[in-house]
Amino acid sequence: MKTKKFLFYLLAALLGECVPVMSLHPLYTDKDLVFEEKLLGIWVDDANRPETTWEFKEPNEQKKMCKLIFVDDEGKKGSFDVHLTKLQNKLFLDVYPSEPPWDKDDPNKVEWIYNTLFLVPFHTFIKINEIESQLKLQLTDDDGFKKLLEENPGSVEHMSIENQPVLTASTKELQAFVLKYADDKRLFTDETVLIRKEPKVNVEPNDIDPNEALKKG
Predict the structure, then answer these.
(1) Residue 27: inside a domain, yes or no?
(2) Looking at the 3D structure of the chain, how many domains does it have?
(3) What pLDDT is attached to residue 116?
(4) For 163-206, how does the pLDDT look when each residue is reduced to its tens digit (9 = 90+)?
(5) How many whole angstroms separate alpha carbon 97 and alpha carbon 68?
(6) 111: containing domain
(7) How far apart are CA 5 and CA 10, in angstroms?
């Protein structure tokens, strides 16, 4: 097996065999970008479980982008630049690697394991259904995308790299494709619901009501 192909499938196994759909071109043009402050902060799958966290930080309102630091429940991380994109009445995140996967001083030390999926810096997309008290999103999955292409190979321009489809369509064509299949489970997976992680409040001793403390004692 070729080294590149072995690495790809090794990563797929590591990430639970869920590999996002990749694109050479972004989903957005400048006019499609929006900035939503409510996206910022730390979101988790479930506050009562070992946390997989999505932290949106370092906003740049002028460029209408921010950074996403993704950490799974085993501590594996990814660092990405994200642009919130509005197409018609639908919202999407364009996700692009912001860091090389390995340490610049030690190439054998892989800090951003999820960025190894982007050894060639591709874009990938996330559909956003709600940004309120919950963040509801849908990821892409290349297995479903392969089925879509098998049934309709002319649906969008693409190429195959080691049997993995990569979108090569222009941004304009890409937008039309994503809007057409926005509600199709072959492109976007089941909805993931995240909740906002509230910051821990440090209580000073003087803030404690002694009567309440006695009751608890």
Answers:
(1) yes
(2) 1
(3) 59
(4) 788 999 999 999 999 999 999 999 998 898 999 987 655 545 55
(5) 9
(6) 20-200
(7) 9
